[in-house]
């Protein structure tokens, strides 16, 4: 099962906020875009990220030569691809391994997308060799290390500084109504927060794995709430045991025209910052997030958090998918 999408009605961008900026023009940083490619020459690579199995993970489109494409064309390509996000390399300095990257869902541009970042890094490493990459994104500079692991490319992104703060009751209560949950369903040890590592995500922890598996939310109500607050996804988690940092997650993404993401690297990075803000990271910590199981596309995200570093590292593999 691929991510389910609604039929996009046209551009519907997320609010522009200080924490969710669109790309800032910096013409001196990278070469200027070239001539606009004709539509039939736009090559879209397809990868599934955070998995070693093409039947799992989160599919992403990757356009390595998007120089000259305007916003409307990139949005149209993303809508045609139909994945939760497609990444576009809009400028590059290949010798310096430095690239400008933008991300579009079928409905909107987003400031940062973790799984499309991993997919793009793997695509570039497959063409140009493994090593360090630097991506200029609307959310800031993202460094990605790539290496070979049993014949597959593994990528680790380092987020912008992450932070998290308690969610207000006026945010939590309507979210619970849209999810058809109640306060009694929540894990009191992991309080509701709004967490950021490139995008804002509402984080809600549920006590029961069965409750998470049975998710059936009000798409329109959650979409309206998320647009009002500038959230990219709602990161719903269940902790397997109080003495372990193993989590199951689901991420509704209605603002992107997508019912749910099978793997959400940006939310995983924000969740690492959330755990740090709660004081749960007292030494270097690796967190395992299992996502996508309830959609039939299991994904594994590995999140490294350090008590003295606000940046979070998210690691995963990506595998190519055949063109439709």
UniProtKB/TrEMBL annotation:
Region (Disordered): 1-37
Gene3D superfamilies, A to Z: Diaminopimelate Epimerase, Chain A, domain 1 (3.10.310.10)
UniProt keyword Acyltransferase present: no
GO cellular component: cytoplasm
Active site: 85
Pfam family, one: PhzC-PhzF
Coiled coil: none
One Gene Ontology MF term: isomerase activity
SUPFAM superfamilies linked: Diaminopimelate epimerase-like (SSF54506)
UniProt keyword list: Isomerase
Superkingdom of origin: Bacteria
Family that this chain belongs to: Belongs to the PhzF family.
Protein name as catalogued: Phenazine biosynthesis protein PhzF
Higher taxonomy: Bacteria, Bacillati, Actinomycetota, Actinomycetes, Kitasatosporales
């Amino acid at each position: 099962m691929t991510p389910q999408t609604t039929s996009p009605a046209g551009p519907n961008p997320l609010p522009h906020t200080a924490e969710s900026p669109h790309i800032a023009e910096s013409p001196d940083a990278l070469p200027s875009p070239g001539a606009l490619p004709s539509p039939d020459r736009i090559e879209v690579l397809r990868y599934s990220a955070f998995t070693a199995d093409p039947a799992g993970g989160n599919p992403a489109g990757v356009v390595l030569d998007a120089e000259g494409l305007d916003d409307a064309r990139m949005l149209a390509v993303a809508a045609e691809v139909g994945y939760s996000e497609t990444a576009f390399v809009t400028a590059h300095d290949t010798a310096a391994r430095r690239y400008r990257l933008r991300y579009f869902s079928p409905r909107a541009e987003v400031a940062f997308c973790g799984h499309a970042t991993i997919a793009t890094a793997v695509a570039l490493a497959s063409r140009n060799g493994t090593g360090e990459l630097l991506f200029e994104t609307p959310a800031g500079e993202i460094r990605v290390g790539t290496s070979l692991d049993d014949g597959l490319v593994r990528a680790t992104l380092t987020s912008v500084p992450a932070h998290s703060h308690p969610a207000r009751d006026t945010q939590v209560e309507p979210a619970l109504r849209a999810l058809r949950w109640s306060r009694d369903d929540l894990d009191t040890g992991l309080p509701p927060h709004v967490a950021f590592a490139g995008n804002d995500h509402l984080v809600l922890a549920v006590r029961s794995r069965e409750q998470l598996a049975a998710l059936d939310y009000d798409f329109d109500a959650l979409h309206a709430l998320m647009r009002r607050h500038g959230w990219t996804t709602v990161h719903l988690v269940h902790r397997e045991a109080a003495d372990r940092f193993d989590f199951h997650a689901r991420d509704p993404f209605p603002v992107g025209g997508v019912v749910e993401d099978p793997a959400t690297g940006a939310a995983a990075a924000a969740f690492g910052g959330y755990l740090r803000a709660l004081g749960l990271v007292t030494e270097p910590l690796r967190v395992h997030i299992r996502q996508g199981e309830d959609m039939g596309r299991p994904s594994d995200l590995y999140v490294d958090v350090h008590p003295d570093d606000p940046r979070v590292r998210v690691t995963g593999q990506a595998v190519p998918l055949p063109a439709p």
